[in-house]
Amino acid sequence: MNTFNIALIGCGTVGGGVVKILSEMNHTLNERAGRAVKISRIVELNPENAIKRFGIQKEAFCGGGKKLTVDEANSYISDILNDTGIDLVVETVGGTGDFVFNLCVNVCKSGKHLVSANKALLAERGKAIFNAAEENNVSVGFEAAVCGAIPIIKTIRESFTGDEIVSVSGILNGTSNYILSRMIDENLSFEQALTFAQEAGYAEADPTLDISGGDAAHKLIILMKLIFGIDVTMEELKYQGIQSISKTDMDYAREINARFKLICFARHDGDFIYGGVCPMMVKDENVLSGVNGATNAIRVINKYSGKHILIGAGAGSSETASSIVADILFIARYNDRMNRTLPNGKLKFKGLKDYTLPYVITFETEDRPGITGLVTTEIGRQNINIYTVTHNRHVSDKALFSIETQASTLKQINAAISEIKTKGILKCEPVVYPILY
Amino acid sequence: MNTFNIALIGCGTVGGGVVKILSEMNHTLNERAGRAVKISRIVELNPENAIKRFGIQKEAFCGGGKKLTVDEANSYISDILNDTGIDLVVETVGGTGDFVFNLCVNVCKSGKHLVSANKALLAERGKAIFNAAEENNVSVGFEAAVCGAIPIIKTIRESFTGDEIVSVSGILNGTSNYILSRMIDENLSFEQALTFAQEAGYAEADPTLDISGGDAAHKLIILMKLIFGIDVTMEELKYQGIQSISKTDMDYAREINARFKLICFARHDGDFIYGGVCPMMVKDENVLSGVNGATNAIRVINKYSGKHILIGAGAGSSETASSIVADILFIARYNDRMNRTLPNGKLKFKGLKDYTLPYVITFETEDRPGITGLVTTEIGRQNINIYTVTHNRHVSDKALFSIETQASTLKQINAAISEIKTKGILKCEPVVYPILY
Fold first, then answer.
1. Which of A95, B65, B159, B270 minimizes the number of CB atoms within 10 Å of its CB?
2. Do residue B307 and residue B221 come from a single domain?
3. Domain shared by B414 and B305, yes or no
4. Is B219 noted as a catalytic residue in this protein?
5. What pLDDT band is residue A394 in, cutting at 50, 70 and 90?
6. Do residues A147 and A163 both lie within one domain?
């Protein structure tokens, strides 16, 4: 077959990694693709960094390695879109603005395949891009958009095809996981651990998107679209970050043999997909509790083949780039046989508050006889089964309570807490987290 | 496209599961394949069990559901091989005898694709089958042959294509892992745990293949062929089972914060692939140490994307069947674009004894001053760096030693032990296991 020609728009950390792998593995990649695979054009406003960091030849860049004005870049992009010799465009520009959105749509409209690692764009404005691809019979590769190196997208599309996915959950944000791991293992506060994460390069100067759960939410939205065919907006998906986890919360987790993780969770049940992002206390017997540092992990539960866990690097230049290269090869090999449609969305979305999960409720009370009976009676009145009650820490005149419930809804939990509050025995606002077994 | 017709030879636990999934998910599977996928023929000597267990219609079987003689079965198989309407044959006969070997080769020669879960056959006689497939331009699907439900084969072939695999290791035998998990968690002897495994259906009446490391070796041989293009025989691959792990060994593992696992290990280094199967002490910080019960896990280390771990069910009817169905769909979709060649074998094989690994050496000595110096001096003389020395257990007149070394070869370790033996201070034969971090 003829050469498979690629244009790369944006040559930063990830784009540069793609050029590097395609150059270093050129011979092997051509063999694997069954045809020559070649980067024919690179458009980058400031090629200097990429030239230095990845050793890319100046001549590889449109403009010969000089800085480009926005107009010049647009002109090169326009040439690429009009060039019928280009088969695929890799977008590593980033952001969710109109420029990159229009670029992606126009790539599809020009009859070229698109590969993108842009999770925010695909989560927030992906529907129009996927539709444009379907209408124009081209593929969108987005392996790198969900958990960097972990091949979850192809696993779902090509390996779990003889099965029905019931639920997907996991640790989809490396920054949060790094911060939580250090908080737990070194008994640090959130602020201390965040500072260390920033110093180690695992958190941005402005870490909001990562620590708020927003980045994890983007990935969960993409997975729900791919698996269940459902379009969920960031507004519909309730996501909660790790900022408000206190040292006391950490102590409670330790007490029930669990570790805090920022968990993305989606489950199919009847006509609904229940989903959300929030910190959960993950029990030690769950493998996810042992996934620490910046590592990501995804758990998929299938109807026939049961529980699967994939663990790997969620970010990084060559890690993310290797997923992009795998997408390029897959399209180069199988393009004309690929099913470009995502599943059809007949299912409806509901938040996790409507789904039954085991919870842990922690609070401080007066330290006097009769409190346990009073508290557990109120919980039982809401039809919540209690798994364990721990109140073995008594500090001066306070008793610290930690109650693990069996599966119940947040509504039931909140109703029980409201009733307990009326008794005037609480010394602090109760804290509630789901438990993941 | 026209219907994709399948013949199933053998309809036991796994074959029955394939019929069940194809029947229950028929509509979805056809959509995913982009064409109708249909089991047109089933050949089974004793269809009665499958009819009862999986609710398969009698009419689906060649012979209408009656018992078949071997001659009748052979005649039906011959019809299938001659039928140009059949696109793919699923072999779930099992065994490594000439009958099933010839069946697989003849399927390929007849121009039909082959899907098989038969790890023993592919490991011991696979070369001729893969060659026949390549010569006849048909595909061999063997996802189900390595770790049942875990999609490691497609992950290697389709997802890690933008990368170079450096090493593969893991827990590839569920029976051994189940036995070891119970030995560790309930302080059982090997014999006790084996009995429980047999009662729970996790071990066969004759468990030899599983507990000897033979079954794990089969899977490692297939992985080494797929990843590194190297043909290794069962004779060349040194494999060691779990039978000789004692309760004392278990205590030593606990002491260095590790758990025993039967580990398959292969690593590319220069012109060589170093590989083997043996029990290792897996450190608690390694996620594999938390993979317990009959669950399987595979760790792949890639040049660009780093460490990946896949965890899932290694056996079971519907679990294994789901992998077979995924193979069927993949071939139905992408058949005419598939690269049928396995990598070319220029690399040479060496056993793990030639590879440097950290080891733990345990033994009992006289309990008197000077022993530690004497022992560690001999180890140092072999250019082995010591990581830690533990000898905190003193029982009557014995001291129990446990020495963790840094990476060294088994040859160095054995040389040090020989020297130590000449000192006349040992009260037992030293026990040596590699450590996996």
1. B270
2. yes
3. no
4. yes
5. low
6. no
